[in-house]
């Protein structure tokens, strides 16, 4: 649009006139815009550079095209400062910037990801010679890929995998063919609650204008209490607390409290089942004799059939089949830990309050979830982990 001579003139004048766009534009008009022809019948005189003429009774101005606007002048001067050039090319010019998101770079990044999906953005950028920001842009906007956090689970031995499948099939057969009510099962478990308990470090954020450099001190040995509870479709029995190591004798004492509470419940069905995990203190002769006395063959526990010849063998390595594990403990900790109890007494009191706040309707939904999803997903996963399916 403007010649090299005009561009040089604009830069020099803008600098000479102390970076005034208006004065620069006027100087440009005076230098490069010739005066428009004046009608001979109205013109009184003309001279080179004259910008107005007189008509009868008034003063008129010749319609001279305006020079470059303020934005154009500033942009040209900024480009000259940045590049030392006023030529009309793309180098250093304001406009569409060069991009690293080319088909070739997208293909290179895609190839690296296909070979190693666990490659970091830093490593991909190093291998391709791209900036990390360009690499992230290619991954997210071009390849539509996002970083997913890898979950860790306890490894399940081959034998336990088959035991889990057998248990799920047996339970589903009882439910579908025999009308078994899984809501009559008391699912039991225990968990440690530490006094300095932490819910989720991913939620630890501090919003502010400056970094407070705040850290949470964690003692090497935190006081804790072991919490035991039982869950069925009619509610929760417990929690019961043990501050010492859980032994077979202490576990039987908990069971005695549980049975006493259970027998006092109203509308108690005639037949109720009991299910426990396979912790070593739970698999002693003393414990099995107690369970056999009160529940007979309605016990689901690891090695229980071997001892009594009745009941069901509980699936090992199966916290994902216990409502206490996949529902109760997480719910309690989410409610208790934000209150930051100072003593074990306060911790136990907060756990009791949190337990009482869980409605029977919520527990029933959890039990239905166990029937409709977890058992069937376990079969579909062939006994392996299935949390990625039900999440």
UniProtKB/TrEMBL annotation:
Gene3D superfamilies linked to this entry: Ribonuclease H-like superfamily/Ribonuclease H (3.30.420.10)
Positions of the Tc1-like transposase DDE domain: 185-347
Molecular function GO terms recorded: nucleic acid binding
InterPro entries: RNaseH_sf (IPR036397), Tc1-like_DDE_dom (IPR038717)
Protein name, per record: Tc1-like transposase DDE domain-containing protein
Provenance organism: Araneus ventricosus
């Amino acid at each position: 649009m403007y010649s090299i001579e005009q561009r040089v003139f604009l830069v020099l004048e803008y600098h000479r006139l102390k970076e005034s766009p208006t004065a620069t534009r006027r100087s440009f008009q005076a230098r490069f815009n010739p005066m428009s022809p004046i009608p001979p019948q109205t013109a009184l005189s003309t001279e080179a550079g004259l910008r107005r003429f007189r008509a009868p009774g008034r003063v008129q101005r010749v319609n001279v095209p305006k020079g470059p606007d303020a934005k154009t002048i500033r942009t040209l001067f900024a480009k000259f400062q940045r590049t030392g050039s006023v030529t009309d090319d793309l180098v250093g010019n304001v406009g569409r910037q060069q991009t690293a998101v080319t088909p070739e770079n997208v293909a290179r990044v895609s190839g690296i990801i296909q070979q190693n999906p666990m490659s970091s953005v830093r490593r991909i950028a190093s291998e391709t010679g791209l900036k990390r920001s360009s690499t992230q842009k290619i991954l997210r906007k071009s390849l539509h890929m996002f970083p997913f956090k890898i979950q860790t689970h306890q490894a399940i031995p081959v034998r336990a995998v088959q035991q889990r499948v057998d248990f799920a099939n047996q339970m589903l057969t009882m439910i579908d063919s025999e009308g078994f009510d899984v809501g009559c099962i008391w699912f039991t478990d225990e968990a440690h609650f530490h006094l300095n308990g932490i819910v989720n470090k991913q939620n630890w954020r501090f919003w502010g204008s400056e970094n407070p450099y705040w850290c949470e001190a964690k003692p090497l040995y935190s006081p804790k209490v072991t919490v035991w509870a039982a869950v069925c479709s009619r509610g929760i029995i417990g929690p019961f607390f043990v501050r010492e190591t859980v032994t077979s004798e202490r576990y039987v004492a908990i069971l005695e409290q549980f049975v006493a509470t259970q027998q006092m419940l109203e509308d108690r069905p005639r037949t109720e089942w009991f299910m426990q995990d396979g912790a070593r203190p739970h698999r002693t002769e003393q414990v099995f004799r107690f369970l056999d006395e009160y529940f007979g063959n309605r016990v689901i526990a690891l090695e229980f059939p071997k001892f009594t010849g009745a009941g069901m063998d509980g699936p090992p390595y199966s916290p994902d089949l216990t409502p206490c594990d996949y529902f109760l403990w997480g719910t309690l900790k989410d409610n208790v830990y934000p209150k930051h109890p100072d003593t074990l007494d306060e911790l136990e009191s907060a756990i009791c309050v949190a337990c009482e706040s869980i409605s029977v309707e919520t527990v029933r939904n959890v039990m239905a979830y166990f029937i409709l999803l977890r058992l069937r997903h376990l079969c579909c996963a062939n006994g392996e982990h299935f949390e990625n399916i039900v999440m």
